[in-house]
Amino acid sequence: MSDTAGRQPGLSVLDRPNSYIGRAVPRPNIARLTQGRGRYASDISLPRMVHVAFVRSPYAHARIVRIDKTAASGLPGVVAIVTGAELAAVMTPWVGVLSHLKGLKSAPQHAIAVERACWQGEAVAAVVARSRAEAEDAAELVAVDYEELEPVVSVEAALAPGARAIHPELGDNIAFERVLDAGEVDRAFAEADSVVETTFAFGRHTGVTLEPRAIVADWNPGEARLTVYQGTQAPHMMQNIIARHLALEESQVRVICGDVGGSFGIKVHVYADEMATVALAKLLKRPVKYVPDRVESFVSDIHARDHCVKARAAVKRDGTITAFEIDDETGIGPYSMYPRTSGIEANQVVNLVGGPYRTPNYRARARVVFQNKNVMCQYRGVGHPVACSVTEGLVDMAARAIGMDPFEIRRRNVIPDDAHPSVSAAGLKFEALSHQAALAKLHAMMDYDARRREQAALREKGVYRGIGLATFIEVTNPSAAFYGVGGARISSQDGAALRLDATGALVCQISVTEQGQGTEAVIAQVVATAFGVPIERVRVITGDTDVTPYGGGTWASRGAGIGGEAALQAGKALRENVLKVAGTILQAQPAALDIRDGLVVDRDTGRERIGLEEIARIAYFRPDTLPSDFQPELMVVRHYVPRKYPFAFTNGVNACWLEVDVETGFVKLLKYWIVEDCGTIINPQLVDEQIRGGVVQGLGPALMEHCIYDERGQLLNGNMADYLVPMAAEMPDIEVGHVVSPTLESELGAKGAGEAGTAGAAAAVANAVNDALSPFGVAISAIPITPEIVLRALGRL
Amino acid sequence: MTKPIAISLAVNGEPVEALVRPRQHLADFLRDTLGLTGTHIGCEHGVCGACSVRLDGDVVRGCLVLAVQADGAQVETIEGASDSGELASLQHAFAARNALQCGYCTPGMLLNAAELLARNPSPSRDDIRQHLSGNYCRCTGYQAIVDAVEAAARAGAGGAP
Amino acid sequence: MKAPDFDYVRVRSLDEALAALAAHGEGARILAGGQSLVPALNLRLLAPEILVDIGGIADLSGIALADGTIRIGAMTRHADLERSPEIARHVPLLARAVREIGHPAIRNRGTIGGSLAHADPASELPACVLALEARIVARGPSGERTIAASDFFRGLYETALGPDEILVRIEIPAAAAGERFAFHELARRHGDYAMAGIAALARDTGAATLRIAYFGIGSRPMLAAGAAAALRDHGASEAGAAAAVRALGADLEPQSDLQASAALRMHLAGVLLRRALKDLFPDAAGGREEEIA
Description:
Shape of chain A: globular
Oligomer: heterotrimer
Largest sheet of chain A: 7 strands, mixed
Structural class of chain A: alpha+beta
Low-confidence stretches of chain A: 1-11
Distance between the termini of chain A: 51 Å
CATH topology of the largest domain in chain A: Aldehyde Oxidoreductase, domain 4
Distance between the termini of chain C: 45 Å
């Protein structure tokens, strides 16, 4: 693979003089953030603003018999106490389904529960007061009579014959079921030399954004307009949904998203308590702020990856993996989340298992099940970590069964780099992947053979280290195939508006959003390169539905690939327009001119002709000096959406090196390597940091992160001390390598990188632990891998 | 409802007099009363480190100190430590290494890193990882932060305060 | 997550503090470093009427050596212990253990008196003072009394302190020549409360004076008297170690929680004992780790 595949060198827009593409340009917003001068939604304070706290159900399932506000209403500072029924008068409920997930069903969900609470932590009343503390005081005194109902907690219980349906009107607890059968699975298993089989269990976990979700809603009755300051990944989606459920026009809702203290997919969903907050603002005609505290976050932020997958694979003695078969069960809580639905994660698992390999025979079933736990939905990596852990766990088991090195079995089975475009057994279309190149690069980076020697030598001394590999593919740059075709008003296209201001600098308003990943830096790099100015001359504006073009925002690793291409096309278009003005002023052919480093130059000689500031001056202040039939157009808008492929798949491979203390069961991560291929790399530093951060978000669930519920549906560790987020001391250094296979769909060639690290990290850890424990003849297929699990596997407890 | 209590303290070198309710923690006081929103709130039970501030020269959790306890104290926040220039070397290293993404943990990380370097001008990577272990970062995976602190140490940032 | 409403008084003397306690009875809580109390308030796990802040009492902190005893004022911060040359020299076990308490920002604020009075079974200092045979001095309306560490910890967050008493100081015999200690803790993240921990001290080079204290195992810090006796009887040999590990079954009452089952804690207690013995008696066979399973 080369980074100019399919293009003639020198003609690419990426190769322009003074290109910023491929350079580690510092982010424009970084100095502000290092000084504590960011502006997060939780920082917003408005005149007359009041605060909301929610009364939340202590039961996983309960009928709300009566709500008595008397005692609470009398407390100082209380402005209003609002029940679900009262709020339902201003806000309509929603149902989280998508038509392309056939059969997906869910029940109407209200902003505040009306008759029944369906999970521990569901809001049953809102208390609005002058301060959050006063709202909490009053919330304690809101007397709710509950009639506790039998909760349906485990997936098994939800699926059991005769199980009580959480939503009786839906008939049963199965929200969605998908089956897939490709090739000749039965025959492949019958003809296998070895069949490996196990059940993979995944602990429910969550995103723990360091800034909780945060929203300030300001209804101005004079303007009949709602301004919402929100930490969100998708401002236009929120604008649409808030308007729809408050019976407003979209033009009556403005969503502003400033700095966001971490999102990772947590902040791309429609949360009932945030919807309640906007409804309260409309009801009370004043600004209302809601920032869940950390304990609320654990019972209301979406959880993810509560999966149990029975899986098997068929392998031939020569290492050929001939079939995969999986049966996935996942519990999503009592409602499918709106509007992206809680069917996507399992759907992705079905799509992605076996994805890196040419194995043609594949059978899958996934069942998505309602239960009385917190809602579950898409979190960074959506389905990838589950699919990757299953696939890579099976591949290692297959290698062990036939006595083959884990690197070798992967080399033999990955789709060859020269076989693309190709289609996977699950029907995924791959434009260009680089599994072979990535494996070769990783092998060299980690000095695989030396590690194996070190491992053997240490084993002699009773030190048990392991190497775990995990290949992966990642869904990026989604087209309308992800949500739009299912009827959701979630834009897969993005727009960039670019203008030359009166000093010759550029302002780019763009619909992709900044969550800290560096979107604004990447867009500035692309614009500066495509147009031809120093990057300091580009200002990027994101996150305001009144200001930016319409678009999707940040999700599914799409900002650089889709937003970047829109910015590139806008940069080119504005350059053309500016050169027309320059040509008119200079009486030259625009085609003979170029813009380089902020100056209009002769294209052939590079000789300076005129500055941008002078062009702007003439166009804006002395248009009288231009021909009367010539109108300079110094602002352009361009949009982009991928059309040829539903998704731009990326790929990569992880390796984890760790040590298991077989006396204590503790696992120490020693080192981590990852090679990934996200196509054109706009900013290598930002890509590497996305990968590293993503890896650690996969390492956490592999070893520590787990939302632990009891049999009554109570979350037992919903606080920062008991839910273990990775800390600095336990995390390894991570070396990142790249292979570059640009997508040819866009001129930029960039694919996504935001979720790649998360996809395979848990798989690499589990495989490494099992490699370390291989002398004991035991294996673990459940995460998180706790000391307890290790010691039980070893038979030491 | 209890009566507010009068406190007087210095925040970033400026004298401040205020009436506070005993239950208000220092981080809320700095943010809500003084508008110093660079002190962030992540958990309010003393685990995440986002609310780190200096109290009489020592880095403390702003959510685990009551505002009334700061009566008579010198408090320094990220805004003050930035404006005085003492964090410049660390801030530069963080920016150069992209040791922050969302930036929410960053003020706390910087104050804690500065304290480490003041005590130990040439810490090992393990020293840095251990010292910063009370500060959550959910974005970076920590390596870039460790790199940045290491780079700042090499550049002599430990000489500050 | 805002604390419930409460009153607050900052006292300038112990007498004032005792008077405040007497006036408010069970409704009063002492505020020392606040690193355990304030989170409990923010989480609304506690709702005191009034906090009595003893942070303003000047003579409650400090470290002094006299007559072979180290006296540590109750309000001495963990960070002070960590940096104290006296502690490093005369109570090296404490110097070692204090580094594992929480994180630097917690140690800048948390105090030894607060930690002991809070009596979290998973925290380091209670087990250390047990191993060190420390004496805990409390002051109440009728004056001072001294409580042996072994009598101080009664149960989960429960101590021998009366509601009208304040812990004022800790007295620890200074290390003698030849004294050895071992300290280990297992926590899944650096700075977390221990899943299991051990603090062991031998006043001389043999096993005769060995005291073994555990934290993070049961509802309070515990001395493993049976294990120590086994080692006295058998010496620090493999046989002694094996007998000591066996004796832990009777010494400890491990508890199950989200982090670990009782069985895991009992197992880890044995592993930690072996590791401690290896530190204390490096030449003895008892340190052979491969025998542990």
